[in-house]
Design brief:
Length: about 140
Amino acid sequence: MKYLTNQVLSLISRIHTQSAEFTNSRLSLKGSFVSSHGFILFILSDGKPQTMGALAEKINRTKSTTTSLIKKLIQEGLVKTEPDPEDSRIKLISLTEKGMEYRNFTGEVSKELLNACWKDFSDIEKTELMRLLIKMSDNLS
């Protein structure tokens, strides 16, 4: 399908949908997870506990949606919550051992997706596409 320049957002939306379908189909092999679950695990894999608000901002979802996603991960034993030592009203979310193991699986899925996306792209093309997409994103910020 050929896209015109005034259809750029439609193309970006299509790529987003395709990447989510790709990711979700692979994540479903290990349970009823979606790409946002994998992204949360990725964020938490650096070992730094996160607040619900910080996670919501990083995955670009509302706090209520993020809370639902986190509840699923808690039920599956992949993440845990603990009170913030500085403010017990705040809960910090971190990976469990099982979550770290699952994160390894989601990392492989991410690599597979990126390899599919970048197939037949030169390093120069990758750099240029990233530069242009960042510019477009900055225009909308």
